[in-house]
Amino acid sequence: MGRYEAIVEAFAPQWPSVGYPTGGWSGDQNPWDASDFMSYCMNAIGSDHTAAGTEALERLSVSIGHTSYSQQVKHVAYVQRRNRRDQEYTPPTIDAVTKILANAGPATVDDLKAVILDHLSDLQQYVRNADTGGWEAFWENGRPKVENVCRDRLLDLLRPRLSSGIELFPELPMPDQKRVDIYATILGQGLPTEIKGQWHTEVWNASNTQLNEKYARDWRTSGRGIYLVLWFGHVAGKNLPGRPDAKPLPSSPSELQILLFEGLGEGERSRIDVVVFDVSRPQRKATRPSAQGLTSPSIPDRRQMLVDAEHHQDELRGDARGQNTDQHSGEAGDCREGAGDRVERERAERGHQPREARQDHDHDHQPIEQLDDGRRDETLPLEQVADIEHDLLRRRVVPSGAPRLHAAYALSMQRCGASPACALTPASSAV
After folding, report:
1. How does 140-166 read in b/e, with b if 16+ C-beta sit within 10 Å?
2. Which SS3 state, helix, strand or coil, does residue 185 take?
3. Is the torsion defined by CA of 10, 16, 20, 21 positive or negative?
4. Distance (Å, rounded) from C-alpha 431 to C-alpha 426?
5. Rounded Cα gap, residues 186 and 168, in angstroms
6. Burial, 349: exposed, middle or buried (Cβ in 10 Å; 0-12, 13-18, 19+)?
7. Do the Cβ atoms of 180 and 192 come closer than 8 Å?
8. Distance CA 110, CA 116 (A)
9. Residue 139: is its pLDDT beyond 80?
10. d(C-alpha 12, C-alpha 70), whole Å
């Protein structure tokens, strides 16, 4: 297969893809004969339904992607992947299906890996969104803890969630006197998990150099494994090392997970899963600016108005049990007499001229023409009414003594015991 790959890579740029001529031809060294030979070599690679065949076609898709064979090699790669999936698929046994439906323990290494990945996903949500600050278990004095301590804290979170048949061991011996960070086992089957902090110098290739080559080849794992990277965010002296291809670093856990998975070989992607576990410190939300000291420009004296209202409320508030209804009735009579005196005084001030309308609200102190109808039952022409209304709207102003008027009204109600008869007195005194 390596020979076919070398031939295609070397001669595809020199022998463009051409079709057969419409007429007859002779010989076997024509341009279309060279195209047929290129197609034969690519199809020979595609007939190998293994990970090696998939990787060879992926390399050709890049190396001859600029030639006239670019679409053909992509088609061969697609067919090879489909045939490989069909060949590698093994239907579950009746016993495995029964355990899955009964929510029993994992029956295969792939089932064990699926269970561990599912619990890791739940733990990620707990660490990020719990009300107890689960991420704090991985930090100390504002700095990330060492890898082994973080591994132990992750074990503390995982163990209570797993069924009794699954056991987790730290630093379990592996081939070549190596030790894996976490090893899950059930019924004689095992699953290694290699853990790296984001600052580790081998974080970009440890999935292959350690997990795949050293741990996943253990006889109990069937080549399966989990590569887990702890994400702490931006931490001085503990940041990600540079990428091997010198491209920009990822800015989020999801971006790092995609890059690490793409760095796996074709044969590893179906056996090894990549998890980036986010234990970074939550970002503090910006607080909203306080409204203290801000006043509405349309009501510059709002605070004074609120103080006046509270003062009036305090004056109106009293002990109802200490008040006498007979006494109130007498006070109400006094209030009515006081109201009568005020009415007489008002009439005296006006000189007993009922036909002259009072016009204190007119700020220029000039009578409005044609306003006084002489208290006769004669109708006014509509033109005069329109002129009067227009002049009133133009001259209308708010009396400056309105707050005092309301205060006088509240005090009179208190003194009169809130009698309905006295309730009209302040209004009449303000005419």
Report:
1. eeeebbeeeebbebbeebbeeebeeeb
2. strand
3. negative
4. 9
5. 9
6. exposed
7. yes
8. 10
9. yes
10. 10
Residue 280, burial from CB neighbour count under 10 angstroms (0-12, 13-18, 19+): buried
Query: What residue type is 193 in one-letter code?
Result: T
Backbone angles phi, psi at 90, to 5 degrees: -125, 115
- Average pLDDT estimate for 395-401: 48
Separation CA 209–CA 287 (nearest Å):
47
Q: Determine the average pLDDT of the residues in 341-365.
A: 51
Nearest CA to 209 out of 262, 268, 155, 168 is that of: 268
Largest CA distance in the chain: 137
pLDDT band at 265 (very low <50, low <70, confident <90, very high): confident
> For all residues of the chain together, what is the average pLDDT?
76
The two beta strands, 139-140 and 272-278, are: unpaired
Contact between 182 and 168 (Cβ < 8 Å): yes
Per-residue burial over 174-188, b = 16 or more CB atoms within 10 Å of its CB, e = otherwise: beeeeebbbbbbbee
Amino acid occupying residue 248: P
Evaluated on CA atoms 302, 305, 311, 313, the torsion sign reads negative
- In the block, tokens 């205060």 appear at 407
As beta bridge partners, residue 178 has 174
Taking the C-alpha atoms of residue 418 and residue 426, their distance in angstroms, rounded to an integer, is 12
Q: What percentage of the chain has pLDDT greater than the value 90?
A: 40
Q: Specify whether the CB–CB gap between 138 and 230 falls below 8 A.
A: yes
CA distances from 55 to 46, 117, 267, 349 (A): 10, 26, 8, 111
